[in-house]
Every structure is written in structure tokens, then in C-alpha cells.
Amino acid sequence: MKKNLQKVMSLLCVSALTMSMIAGCGGSTSDTTTTEAPAATEEASTEAPAEETAEETTEEATEEAAEETTEEATEEEATEDTASSDADATPRNETLYEAGQQWGTINDWNPMSANSNNGLALSANEQARELVYETLFMFNSLDGKLYPLLGSEYSWNDDQTELTVTLNPDAKWSDGTQFTAEDVAYTFDTHVKYQSSTGADFSTYIDSIEAVDDTTVVIKAKTDDNFNPLKVSSFLNSVYMMQKAYLQTVEERNGEDADAVKQDTMEDLVHTGPYGPYLSNDQKAVIIRDDNYWGQADSMWGKLPVPKYIAHTIYKDNAAGQVALSQGEVDVCQQFITDVQNLWLEDGLPISTWLDDAPYGACEAIPSMFFNTERPGLDKKEVRRAIAMAVDYEQIIASAMSGQSPTFAEYPRSVVGPTDGERKYVDFDAIADLQWDNADVDGANKLLDDAGIVDTDGDGIREVDGTNLSFKAECPTGWSDWNASMEIVAAAGQNIGIDIQTYFPEASSYYDDMTTCNFDICMWSAPGAGMMNPYSKGMFYFSEEYAKLPSNWSGNFGHYMNDDAEKILKAIPTETDEAKLKEYYTELSKILLDECPAVALMYRPSLFYAVNESVWTNYPAADDGRNIPPTDCTDGYGIAALYDLELVE
After folding, report:
1. What is the DSSP string of 72-129?
2. For residue 168, what is the DSSP state?
3. Of 279, 303, 333, 640, whose CB is crowded by the most CB atoms within 10 A?
4. What is the pLDDT of residue 530?
5. By mean pLDDT, which of 13-17, 121-125, 552-556, 628-632 is the weakest?
6. Closest by Cα among 608, 612, 618 to 41
7. 501 and 557 share a domain?
8. pLDDT in tens, 1-52
9. Mean pLDDT of the chain
10. Residue 555: which domain range?
């Protein structure tokens, strides 16, 4: 039942992130997959991206689902979905049902794929999904540390040019063979050889990975202009390990053709994780526990995960998934749910969230609007900043987010997220004069007037060089909270003489626009929890490297160039003095607030998390003392939840 926990606002953002490289606990996470689409999204999550990625994650709740007539229609659809998959049913008391991760028949099990839709199993981002494939270590967003998995410990040499990793000798592949250092080295070499997005990304920073013996790996960093210990460390918790022998089989059957290797479905995969493929069709995707899983060794979990099956019905939309959650057909839901508290306060359902009170989740990510700085008009910071000043952010938080975000009055804007672990890196007093009040229309109009950006022909629209300031603000159709946010941005434009029209294309068209800088104003989410934060957020807003990618999923979508910001981004990875790091992030925050290449619209969780306790219970909660993050029992150290679940009798 809903836990009657009294949680205070200080628990809003529970990540205690750190930039230090402490052996055994330290490390860094990466915005991996910098050139590939989120794995399986209708509203992606920056895990990839969160709303991203990765991604990555699905957050396209529809407020209309709360209306009775729509809900009744959706209940019928959900019932039809369930009935059509009865033939594929698994015992309910052995199956954990997820929602919000998988949106179609799984198309592959290949970690090298650039277009995989396998959200159930493949999400190798800052908190990788550890169900089928595994990483060397697991990131825990609650304390900012890495926890052992295939690797047992790691350490840097004095100049941070070599990272030595010791592997768990108990680790084995699903075919019963030993997991060894050769597998680690060959995983990296294969990514590089076939230039997967992971290979293209990490080969910039990693010179080589060498197997010293069966259980010892040395990761050698590049020592040229790309020397970046933070990025090298992120290999540990964001890259899935693959078996050397199996990869050689894949290479052989595809004639070592790069495209063919990356497009191989790998349905015969060999893996180290606790679950493997069981079923996938247009109705349902299911993975089944490997009862020979190596992790039941005393050196790891000491037992098997409790659910035998993890299943994901393929729902038509978020509304159907929400109805299924309400009916107890979904146990763990990774979807934005408008007014989620009504599920227990008004409907009396046995549904819980990470926090009992708003914002209900662990807010770490920052959905932001990007301005295309190559567009006439938007190339002027006065125009960008004026739009930013005029937006009613409190309305975004109250309506689009139904209060599921702290405000910018509580957590002022900067280059870091609303967590204690990140905010310690910024001097907020030093940037206070660059902040703006909510919906400051008068200030925005004065800024434009003082800059000489005025309406000269009386049509109500200001001009630059004789051309009206007229722009489109876009994000994917159906992402209702984002759509609502863009409508509020458009309304702000009307108040200051700038014509902003909303444009909500299908997700695939939007992805093309965003990743190729073919937009005026777009929306995407800064990375949430990760060992590389707040560095990854700085990269997200400013990186010239990202802007130069032919297909850019990582950030700086508006191609903003600033030499000072670029110098700071180059300096951060090798800086260990926290006072100096605070100086760097404060300066980046000044540039962000003054130049406004991108503007934060809200704070939100990297993953949404609502659980129905009618079948399973003992899910992680903010104050239960177990230190298990709210990552849907699947991602990073959040998978530890699977070993604590209990059936409701």
C-alpha cells in the first residue's frame, strides 16, 4: 500500500554526485552513443539519452487520460491488448511487468546497433540497464559511486593515463565459460573496428585496452589534446561487455562487413546478465531469468533476482500504460503521469512513487530549449535572452509538469542540476545578477528596445535587419508535457513582439531536425544522474565537438560557439582542485545565463518511477535506508531492487 512517509524538500534531488576519481568508488559516466538514436522511445530519456536516450526513456503522458471518457476508451484498448497476449502469458506471481520502456517488437539484441529499439534490455547510458548485458560497474545516483559487477575494483596510476581494472573471477557467460580480460579488450576493439557510435566516441579518448591476465585489464588513455580521465572512466559503467568468441562468430557470418555486423540481430547472443531473451512480438516482450546466473555467487548478490520473468506489454500509448498500472497489470511504470498523486489520494490505489510528495521523483535532468544560433535573429543574444525572460516557468511547472518539478526560485538556473552534489560546484551569489524573474515581460521588452530591436512597420512584430522575428518552437507530437511547455514559450513571444509558432512533428522528423540543427527553437533534456556530471551538463550546453557531429544526439544542438567555454571544458577533466572546479562551473553558468544559447524549462527525473504494489512489494523508496536508486529495478545499481522484491500474499 501507499507508504505514509513524511519526506522533506531536501529529498527532492537525492543524487550526491561527485567529480572526484576515488579508486573503488569513484569514476565517471558518459553520455555514450553520441551519434545514435535513443533505444526505444516515444518520449526518449537522455540516457541516453532522458527524454533522452536515450535515452533512453518514455515520458509522453497525456492529460486527457485523466478525463473519464478518454480513460474508459483507453481501458477498452488496454483490455484488448491484454487479451490478445493471453497466449504468451507467464505466471503472474513470477512476472514483473514494466511500462514505458518498450514500444514495439524488439528488432535486435546488438549493443553495436545504431537503430536498436530494444528498450527492455539495451540502454547503455549513465545508468546502464543491467538485465541481459552487463557493464563492469554499476552507477548509483544516490551516492555518486560505482558498485562492482563484472569488475571488482579499479584504480588510476598517478598521472591518470592508465586505469587498471580487476575482474570478478566468478563472472561467467550464459554458455558457462569464464568472463575474462580478453572479452573486455575485444569488446572495445570490435566497437572501434566497426566504428559503432560507442567505438567512435571512446576511441577519441582511449588509446587501447589490454588484457594483462585473465582478471586484469589496463585501459590506456590518450595523452594528446583528447586526454580526458573523466571520459575514460565512464567506460566502466556505460559499455556492455560482449564475449570475444561470440563476436568472432558474428564477424565471420557477416564477412567482417561493418554495416552487416552492426545490423546483426544477435538473437543467439551470449551474455552475462541475469536474464535472457524469451519472447518478443507486437504484443509483448519478455525476458527470462537464467537460473545459472553467475551473480548468485557469494562474491556478488549471493542469490538470484526474485522475478523469473520481466515482461513489457506493447501499449498503444502512455494512456494505455497508465490504465494498466491502475489495474495492476503493470508493476513498475516509467512514464510521466499527470497528477500522479491522484492515483492514491483520489482513487485509493496501492501505487507508490519515490517521494510521497511533489515532485514525487528524484529530479536530476534539465529539459531545456535550444536556440539555433545560426538563424538570423536568434544569432543575437538579446533576442534569445528576451524570450527566456518572458517565459512563464511557474506555469510550465504547474500545468505541463503538474507540480512535479522544483521551481527556479528554489533552485536558480545554472549549468548544474538541482542536486547537492552538483550545486556545490557553482557560486550562486556570483551569478545572482544574471538571473531573471519569472515571466519578466517588462524586462524583456526593455532589453529589446535598448538593443534597437523594434517594430518599425506597425505589424506588431519586431524586426532585425528589416526581417520579422518569426520562429517555430518544436518538439515531438504527443509529448504532452513538452508540447504544453512549447505553447507557453510561444505565448511569451507574443508578449514581447516576437512571433513564435509551435510545431509538433512526428518523433522521427523531429529527431532529424534536432540532430542536424534544422530548427529555430527545439527542446531536449540535459543529462541526469551520472559520474561525469556536472561536466556532462557543461558539454551538453557548450561542446563544439557535439556541434560538429553530422548527427548530434548529445547537446549544443543550436551550434553555439564560445572560445572561453570551450577552454573551460578542456580544462575540467584534468582538474582535481575543487575550488578551481567551482570557478570553472561558475564561469560556465555566467556564459549560459548571459548568452542564453539554451534555457532550462524545468527539472525532472532521469526516469519516472511509479509502482503498483498489488502483486509485488518492497520497492525502493527515498527514506527506506537501502540506498537503491529509483531506476525502475533495472538501471545501474537500481537492479539491486530485483533481489529484494516480495510477493504480496
Report:
1. HHHHHHHHHHHHHTGGG---GGGEEEEESS--SS-----TT-SS---TTT---STT-B
2. P
3. 333
4. 84
5. 13-17
6. 608
7. yes
8. 444 333 333 333 333 333 333 323 323 223 333 334 443 333 333 333 333 3
9. 87
10. 363-605
State the pLDDT at residue 292.
98
Quote the radius of gyration of the chain (alpha carbons, Å).
24
Q: Where do we find the cell 538570423?
A: 376
How far apart are alpha carbons 545 and 38 in whole angstroms? 20
The tally of domains found in the chain comes to 3
Q: Which three cell numbers stand for residue 76?
A: 477498452
Is the link from the previous residue into 91 a cis peptide, with omega within 30 of 0? no
State how far the alpha carbon of 367 is from the alpha carbons of 81, 95, 335, 447, 601, in Å. 32, 33, 15, 25, 6
Query: Among the three residues 212, 243, 274, which one is the final residue of a domain in this structure?
Result: 243
How far apart CA 621 and CA 3 sit, in angstroms, is 9
Co-location of 238 and 304 in the same domain: no
pLDDT score of 341 more than 60 = yes
Share of the chain above pLDDT 70, in %: 87
For residue 424, report the phi and psi dihedrals to the nearest 5 degrees. Answer: -65, -15
Residues 534 and 618 in one domain: no
Backbone angles phi, psi at 612, to 5 degrees: -100, 125
Q: Give yes or no for a contact between 279 and 286, defined as CB atoms under 8 angstroms apart.
A: yes
